[in-house]
Specification:
Strand order of the largest sheet: 3-2-1-4-5
Mean pLDDT: 91
Order of helices and strands: EHHEHEHEHEH
CATH topology: Rossmann fold
CATH class: Alpha Beta
Largest sheet: 5 strands, parallel
Radius of gyration: 13 Å
Number of strands: 5
Shape: globular
Helix content: 40-55%
Strand content: 15-25%
Low-confidence stretches: none
CATH superfamily: Methylglyoxal synthase-like domain
Distance between the termini: 10 Å
């Protein structure tokens, strides 16, 4: 499965710790992130995370495009509700909603999502590609 790993700035450390905790599950899948986050996760966990260059949208537009074509199977985006732009429209969220792509925005749902992937609960996503 192709899993996107993202975090708002103040949630990067939490994402890195999440990846370390679930390294044995995540290493079985194709991981994608924006370049800075990919580097942080790679350096801390040793996981192979492909980094995409971020533009003004923070890298969400290219990921939203991939989601629109079902090139992504799951998203873990640890968001910070204290940010001013928290409630603004997010193209990745919309693309995931339209294409029924699971999208975790906090640690609890991220854990549930990764465990579901490990159990094979989302294997149906492979049929879409």
């Amino acid at each position: 499965m192709k899993i996107v790993l993202l975090a708002d700035y103040r949630k990067n450390e939490l994402l890195v710790n999440f990846c370390i905790a679930y390294m044995r599950i995540l290493e079985k899948h194709e991981l994608v992130s924006v370049s800075n986050t990919a580097r942080l996760v790679r350096n801390a966990s040793g996981l192979d995370v492909a980094g995409l260059s971020a533009d003004n949208s923070g890298g969400l537009e290219p990921l939203a495009s991939r989601a629109s074509f079902n090139e992504i199977d799951a998203v873990v985006y640890l968001r910070d509700p204290m940010l001013d732009d928290y409630d603004l429209p997010n193209p990745l969220t919309r693309a995931c909603d339209v294409n029924s792509i699971p999208y975790a925005t906090n640690l609890a749902t991220a854990e549930m999502l990764v465990l579901a992937i490990d159990r094979g609960d989302l294997d149906w996503r492979k049929l879409l590609r």
